[in-house]
Every structure is written in structure tokens, then in C-alpha cells.
């Protein structure tokens, strides 16, 4: 190999040392011509040339070039979160849920994020661009009970909730907003809206209204408990107006004081 470098230096660089070039393109073209001439020059002590040896012996065993050009990469260690995503550069990428709580290696290039566990690649994602906090989620990475709801989306649940009532719609929006990955809220939304089949639409709406009077972010469980215990049927008592003083026995009116004057 070192001998070949020496031959190249002598044959090409020395031959071009006195020429003047006005662009890198001109220089490369001149080098290419001299290299072609060198490769086809007959050997002195054996038949053939470098080019003929390449065709007869080397070309057939060459491996193909990679489909994509080599890219510089940055490696990071990340922990798979409970929502089966890893956080990389403030973006979230899904990982098969079996790796939850495990540490993984992430290879980051300008276009791809690859995730490795014990030197084996377990998934890859196109690199997310734009605003922070975006999610790249692959359906196959979800647990089976999450995959059931992939045909649904937040808008579909909100439309169903709106048909039941205003308060039910607010609760569904709150449930979806409480999850970093929207799909993780689909199961709770489905369970909530199905309560209308068991308890009636009016009771579900009343239970959602009651739950919202306690907290702006009620859960499916809290509303289910309200329906199971019948709290949605208890009406709020109206406060007695303070101006109606005749209903209080201890209050002395003006007539009392006139009698004792």
C-alpha cells in the first residue's frame, strides 16, 4: 500500500507540479486523466496492467457501496419512560414497550434517530424537526390494550362527548390533555363514554358536571364512583336568602321595639 502511494506521488503529483490550475475542478480532472493513464500502463515484469488485474481478479469480490452515504453521528444514553418513549433533544420517540425502564443507546444523525439495546438496534425514527415536545409513535411499539384505539383520535372522542353534553365534552378534553401521548388517554375516554350505556346519557352528564365542581381535571374513575354511589342524583340545596329575616325566630322586628318604648 505504501509503495502504491509512492508511485502515485511520483506519477501524478510530480507530473502535474509545473501546471497551473484555476479551479479545483480543473485539478481533479487532470488527476483523473493521469490516474487512468497509470492504471492502464502495462506492467514491466508481468503481463497486464493495474486495470486488467482489477477486472479479472478484484471487481467480482468487491462489496456494494452502502445505500446511504456515511453520516457523522452523536450517541446518547436514554431511559425508556413509562409511556414507552425516550426523550432525545426535547423530542419523544417510541420504543417497544418491553423496554420500559431500561437504558438504551440512541444514535443521532441529521436525519435519523436509532435506538439500540445491548448493541442490537430495536427501532429507528426519522428525526423530528420544528417545535419541541413532538412525538413520533409507532403503533407496533404500543401495548396491545393501547393498539385497540389506533383507529380513533382525539377529535372523534370529543365529537362523541359533545353529543352527550357540555360537561362530558369538557371532561374528555381534560383526560386527553392529561397524557403526554394522546393515545394513552383513549382507553379512559372510551370507558367514560360507555358509562352512558349503563347509566344513561343524562346521568353521565350530571356526573361529569358534579366531578367538575370538585376539580378541573376529573378522571374516569372519579366519575364512575359518582355514578356507582348515586351522587349525581343528589341536588345541591339552594341557600336561604339572608334578606328573609321572618323565618328566624330569634330576630326582633320593629314592632317589638315599639311596644316597649
Automatic annotation (TrEMBL):
Domain Transposase for insertion sequence element IS21-like C-terminal, residue spans: 65-134
Pfam families xrefs: Mu-transpos_C_2
Segments for region (Disordered): 232-261
Domain of life assignment: Bacteria
Record-given protein name: Transposase for insertion sequence element IS21-like C-terminal domain-containing protein
Amino acid at each position: 500500500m505504501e509503495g502504491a502511494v509512492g508511485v502515485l506521488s511520483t506519477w501524478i503529483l510530480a507530473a502535474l507540479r509545473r501546471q497551473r490550475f484555476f479551479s479545483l475542478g480543473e485539478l481533479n480532472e487532470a488527476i483523473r486523466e493521469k490516474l487512468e493513464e497509470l492504471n492502464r500502463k502495462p506492467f514491466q515484469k508481468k503481463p497486464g496492467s493495474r486495470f486488467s488485474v482489477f477486472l479479472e481478479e478484484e471487481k467480482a469480490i468487491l462489496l456494494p457501496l452502502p445505500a446511504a452515504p456515511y453520516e457523522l453521528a452523536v450517541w446518547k444514553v436514554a431511559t425508556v419512560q413509562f409511556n414507552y418513549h425516550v426523550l432525545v433533544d426535547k423530542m419523544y420517540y417510541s420504543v417497544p414497550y418491553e423496554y420500559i425502564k431500561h437504558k438504551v443507546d440512541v444514535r443521532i444523525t441529521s436525519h435519523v434517530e436509532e435506538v439500540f439495546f445491548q448493541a442490537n438496534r430495536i427501532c429507528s425514527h426519522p428525526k423530528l424537526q420544528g417545535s419541541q415536545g413532538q412525538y413520533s409513535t409507532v403503533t407496533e411499539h404500543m401495548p396491545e390494550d393501547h393498539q385497540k384505539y389506533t383507529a380513533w383520535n382525539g377529535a372523534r372522542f370529543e365529537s362523541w362527548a359533545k353529543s352527550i353534553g357540555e360537561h362530558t365534552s369538557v371532561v374528555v378534553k381534560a383526560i386527553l390533555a392529561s397524557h403526554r401521548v394522546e393515545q394513552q388517554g383513549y382507553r379512559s375516554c372510551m370507558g367514560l363514554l360507555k358509562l352512558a350505556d349503563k347509566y344513561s346519557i343524562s346521568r353521565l352528564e350530571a356526573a361529569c358536571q358534579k366531578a367538575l365542581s370538585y376539580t378541573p381535571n376529573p378522571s374516569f374513575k372519579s366519575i364512575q364512583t359518582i355514578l356507582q354511589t348515586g351522587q349525581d342524583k343528589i341536588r345541591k340545596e339552594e341557600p336561604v336568602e339572608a334578606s328573609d329575616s321572618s323565618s328566624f325566630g330569634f330576630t326582633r322586628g320593629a314592632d317589638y321595639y315599639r311596644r316597649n318604648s
